[in-house]
Automatic annotation (TrEMBL):
It comes from Sphingomonas yabuuchiae. PANTHER family: UNCHARACTERIZED PROTEIN YJBQ-RELATED, UPF0047 PROTEIN C4A8.02C. Pfam families: YjbQ. Coiled coil: none annotated. Belongs to the UPF0047 family. It comes from the Bacteria. This is Secondary thiamine-phosphate synthase enzyme.
Length: 139
């Protein structure tokens, strides 16, 4: 059994989904493992990780619109607003989507489906520099 770890930095451009499948896949390939489990962990409370369709651009728009409805930016709705009106909604969106993912590695390949991509989901309006801790255990 082997283990490998790294931290990747992702620059975001405000609210939205930034696909990170390619850098993650490249790092996994460099490790030379055939079987194992990849774990990704977002080190932030106002951004998250999701696996989602990477073909139709409308999916991203629909996801952003949905989260704007279920965790709206409304100063009257929240007590916590230390960093502005998008602060508490960002925390709620992070809770709903999660900050970690696990993806099996079989035959040297991540077992993502045909249309699946790994995304950092930025919940804040301003650009941020986010860190994703990556761990892989396998053979």
């Amino acid at each position: 059994m082997r283990q490998a770890t790294t931290i990747i930095t992702v620059d975001t451009y405000g609210q939205g989904l930034t696909e990170i499948t390619r850098p993650v896949t490249a790092w996994v390939r460099e490790q030379g493992m055939g079987e194992g489990l990849l774990t990704l962990f977002c080190r932030h409370t106002s951004a998250s990780l999701i696996i989602q369709e990477n073909a139709a651009p409308e999916v991203k728009t629909d996801i952003l619109d949905y989260f704007a409805r279920i965790a709206p930016e409304d100063a009257r709705a929240y007590a916590h607003d230390d960093e502005g009106p998008d602060d508490m909604p960002a925390h709620l969106r992070s809770i709903l989507t999660g900050v970690h993912l696990s993806v099996p590695l079989i035959g040297g390949r991540l077992m993502l489906g045909t249309w699946q991509g790994i995304y950092l989901f930025e919940h804040r309006r301003a650009p941020h520099r986010r860190q994703i801790a990556i761990h892989m255990a396998g053979v």
